[in-house]
Amino acid sequence: MKWKARTLEQLADMICGENTEGYFQYLSGPRLTRFFRDADTDFVHDGTTRRFWVADVLQKILDFPSANAQMPSDAMLRVIHVLMDSEDAFNENTPRLLALKTLNGAIKREGFEAFYGDDDQCYLRHIGTGAVASVSASPHRPLTGAETEKKIRLVEYLDQCSEDELIEVVLLPLFRQLGFARITSAGHKDKALEYGKDIWMKFVLPTQHVLYFGIQVKKGKLDASGVTKGGQANVAEIHNQVLMMLGHEIFDSELNRRVLVDHAFIVAGGEITKAARNWIGNKLDQSKRSQILFMDREDIVNLFVVSPLTAPQVPKKPHDPFDETLPF
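User: That's the sequence. What structure does it adopt?
Assistant: C-alpha cells below.
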C-alpha cells in the first residue's frame, strides 16, 4: 500500500511531536526507537533528521504484507494505536478529540478515518466500504473479559432475533469487516428474486481476481431429521435453494456483466449438525460439493467477538402490567 508523501510527513510530525499544535508529545531519537518497539517493530533511529526518518519508516511499514489489500498492514495499525493511546493525552482531556481531528486531517486523503471504539482504542475505518481495520486476531485464542461479555450479549441477541435481523444486524456488518465487497441482501419482500440466496457478495483476491459468494441463511438449528421442528430447519429444505444459487447468474454492476456464484455459504444462527453436512454433501456431485461452505453459530460468534464490531443490544420487551405476580 502506498500513501502520499505529504500524508506520511504529517504522521511523522505527529509521532515526533512537531508542528502539531501541541497535542502530541515531543519524542527524541531514543524515544522514537522505544515508540516503534512498543508497536512491535525493530526500527532503531539512526541519528538522521527525525521527521524524514520516521516518514521513511512509515512507508516501509505500509509495505508489510496485509491480510486485506484495502487495509494498512497490522504494523501500521499498531503504530496508530500507540500514537493515539488515551493515556498519552497532551494539552487536552481524554478522549483525545483534538489529536483525533489532527490525525483525520492527514489520513482522510488516503480514504481512511480514525475513531475511538468502546474499548477506548483508536481504529481506522475505510471511508469507501465502512470496514474497520483491525490487527489480525485468531478467533480461537483465549478471550479477554470484555470479549467474553461481548460474546454473552451476542448469543442473547441470536437467541431472540429474527432471520432478517440476523442478516441485517449481524451478518452484513461482519462480512464487510472481513473484507467482502458489494454485499447485497435480497431481503424477504420479493421472494421471486432471491433464486435460492439471501445475500450475494464478492471478494477481491490480492491478484485482483474476483470470487462471488451466495449465502442462504437460516435462523435456527440446521439438522437432517425427518421432521422439521420449531426453531429448526431441515437440510432438505435448502437443497434446492443451493442448486438454484449455484446455477443462477447475478449481475455485477461494477463490471457490467452477469457472473455465476463461485461458492455457496450455508449460514445458520444455530448449530449445523454433522448429519446435515453429510446429507447435503452426498446429494451434490463432486464439483458442486467443493463449492459449499458451512457457517454456524459458533463460527459467527467467534469471528464477531474478535472484530471491532459492537454486539447488538437485545431489544427490551414492553412492560406487560398483567405479567406480574399478584399478592393474595
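The longest strand covers residues 210-218.
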